Amino acid sequence: VPHFRFLTKNDRKKIKLKKNTCFSYLHTDLDPGSSKIKYILSGDGAGTIFVINDKTGDIHAMKRLDREEKAEYTLTAQAVDRDTNKPLEPPSEFIIKVQDINDNAPEFVDGPYHATVPEMSVVGTFVTKVTATDADDPVYGNSAKLVYSILEGQPYFSIEPHTAIIKTALPNMDREAKEEYFVVIQAKDMGGHMGGLSGTTTVTITLTDVNDNPPKFAQSKCHYPLDFETKKSYTLKVEAANIHIDPRFISGGPFKDTATVKIVVEDADEPPVFSSPTYLLEVHENAAINSVIGQVTAHDPDVSSSPIRFSIDRHTDLERQFNINAEDGKITLATPLDRETNMWHNITIVATETTILLCIAMSYGFAIFTETHLFVCFMVIQIVSAVDKDDPKNGHYFLYSLLPEMVNNPNFTIKKNEDNTLSILAKHNGFSRQKQEVYLLPIIISDSGNPPMSSTSTLTIRVCGCSSDGIVQSCNVEAYVLPIGLSMGALIAILACIILLLVIVVLFVTLRRHKNEPLIIKDDEDVRENIIRYDDEGGGEEDTEAFDIATLQNPDGINGFLPRKDIKPDLQFMPRQGLAPVPNGVDVDEFINVRLHEADNDPTAPPYDSIQIYGYEGRGSAAGSLSSLESSASDSDQNFDYLSEWGPRFKRLGELYSVGESDKET
C-alpha cells in the first residue's frame, strides 16, 4: 500500500486553475522533515502543465486548464533519495479531473433555418425544430442546460422551451396578405437563469399556398391588348358543333368540325419608354458647373430598337439651369444652384427616337447585292434583301454574316430578320465626313441549297450631308477649316505664364536693389561719410571756420545711434549714449576694444559679423596729427626729420616734405 497522501485544496471551488496555482501537494509518511527526500512527477503534462516542488511535494499548474480541451490528466508521483535517486516508496498514480465552468455559449450549428407551413393553418401546427449545442459539461451543473425562447416573430409563432419545436400561434395566416416571416430564436444556458450565456439564430418561415380563393375576373368585360414585342402570333383551335341533333340523322355524325385560326400581330411604332416614370436626384448646392448630377435611361420597345435621343423641355427649365447629354441621358449643371433661393427643381425629360435619314441606292445580283452604296446621315438602320435565281420548293432561306475580321467592327453591324431580310445598324451616331467619308462593309450570304452556294459583296457606305427631311444635299468632300482661335484653357495657361515671368522679374530687381543698399543708414549730416561740393572758394588751410574740423578727429563728441537696415528689432531701443571722451593717453587698440564691447552688447546689432566704421585717428603719438587741416603753423615751422626714425616708408615721406621746403626757399 503506498504511503502517499494526496491532499487537495478547494477541490470543488477551483474549476479552472490560474498559472502557478498550487492546487495540491504530495507527502510521504517517511518524510521526517529532512531534505534528503526528493519528489518527482511524471505522466500527462508533467513538466509542462504540472510541476512539482521536489522538496515539499507541492504540485503547481503552469497553464490555465480547459475542460473542453482535456478533461482529466493521469500523473505518477514518487519519493526518491535525493543523493542516490533510489525509490523510497513504490510510485503512486493519481488522476486530476478538471471540473467545468460555464464558459461556452450555446451555438446553432445548422442555422440559419428555412421552413414552410401551409397558410390558414390552425394554432399549434408544427413548423420546424431547431437545435443548439453547448460545449460545457452536460453532467456537472447547469452549464449545458438550455432553454429556448422567441425574440422576434411573435405573435405569429411560438417555441417549446425545452424541445425547441416551433409552432404556429396565430390562426388563419393568409399568404396573399403576407408570405414570409422572419423569426429570431434564442438558446440560453444555466436553465435560462440570470448570468447564463446565450446564442441566437434566424428562421425564415414561408407560407405555402392553398386553394382558398375562388377564381375572379379582374374586369367584367375582358379587353386584352395585343403586343407585337411580347408575342407576334397566336394559334387558336375553334370548334363548331350542333347542340340539337335530329335523331334521324345521328348515324351520319359527328355533327361538329374544328378549324385552326392563326392570328398574326402587326408591329406598330411605339414611343420610347423610360426605365422609371419619375427620377429623384439629390445635388449639393455648391456642386461645380458641368458636374453630372444624375442619369435617365429609356429604350425603344419596338423590335427595331431605335436609338434614343434625350432633351429637356425648356418650358420646365426656363432659366436653363440644367443640360442633358442627348446620347446617354446624363444630366449636368449649367448654372450654380442656391438652396436658399429654390430648394426643388422639377424638369421634364423628353426621349425621342432618333430620326433615321437614309439615302440609299443599291443593285442586286446572284445570292447577294453587288457594289452597294449606302449614304449615311446621322444614325443608320436600314433593311436590305437579296435575290437568288434558283427556285427551291420550300422557298429561299439566306444566311448573312460578316467577314471574321469585321466582326468587331466599331461602326456597323448586321442583324438577320425573320422575313429573310438583313438589317444594317450603326453602332453609334456622330459620323463626320471630315474624319472619314466612305466605309466598306463586306457581307457574306449563303443559301439553303444542297450544296449551299455563297457569295461576298461589299456594301459601300458614304457619309453625306442631308437635310432634316432626309434629302441628300452633298456627298462631296467639303473643305474643313480648323479654328484658328485658342481655347479658353490655352489662353489661361499663357496668361499664367506671363504673370509668373513678371513676378520673377520684380523679385529679381527687388533683391538686386536690396543687395546694393548699405546695411547702415548714414546720416546726411555726418560730414565724415559724405562728399559735399561747394561752388565758392575757401580761404585755404588757414580757413578753419567753415566747419568743425574736430568732428573728423574726435568721434567722442558724437552722440547718436546709427540704426541698422538689415534687421527689424522687435523692440524700439533708445539711442545709446556715447562714451565719455577718453583721455589723451588712450591708444587705438584700447579704443577698438571699447567699441567692440559696445557692439557686442548692442541688442539691435545683427546676429552676424559686420564692419563698424570709425573716424578715430588715435592720440598720444609722438608724430601728432598727419592732417594738414588742423595745422595752426605754417609749413616753414615744421621739421620732418623725425620721420626717418619710423622706418623706410616714413623716411621717404620726410624726404619728400624736406625737398618741398628746399624748393620753396629756392
UniProtKB/TrEMBL annotation:
Sequence ranges assigned to domain Cadherin in this UniProt record: 28-108, 109-217, 225-274, 275-394, 389-485
Transmembrane segments: 480-509
SUPFAM superfamilies: Cadherin-like
PANTHER family the UniProt entry points to: CADHERIN-23 (PTHR24027), CADHERIN-8 (PTHR24027:SF273)
UniProt cross-references to InterPro entries, sorted A to Z: Cadherin, Cadherin-like_dom, Cadherin-like_sf, Cadherin_CS, Cadherin_Y-type_LIR, Catenin-bd_sf
Membrane-protein topology: Single-pass type I membrane protein
Any one cellular-component term (Gene Ontology): adherens junction
Source taxon at top rank: Eukaryota
Gene Ontology BP annotations: adherens junction organization; calcium-dependent cell-cell adhesion via plasma membrane cell adhesion molecules; cell migration; cell morphogenesis; cell-cell adhesion mediated by cadherin; cell-cell junction assembly; homophilic cell adhesion via plasma membrane adhesion molecules
Main location: membrane
A single GO molecular function term of this UniProt record: beta-catenin binding
Name assigned to this protein: Cadherin 8
Entries under PROSITE patterns matching the protein: CADHERIN_1, CADHERIN_2
Keywords on record: Calcium, Cell adhesion, Cell membrane, Cleavage on pair of basic residues, Glycoprotein, Membrane, Metal-binding, Repeat, Transmembrane, Transmembrane helix
Compartment(s) where it occurs, according to its Swiss-Prot or TrEMBL record: Cell membrane
General function of this protein: Cadherins are calcium-dependent cell adhesion proteins.
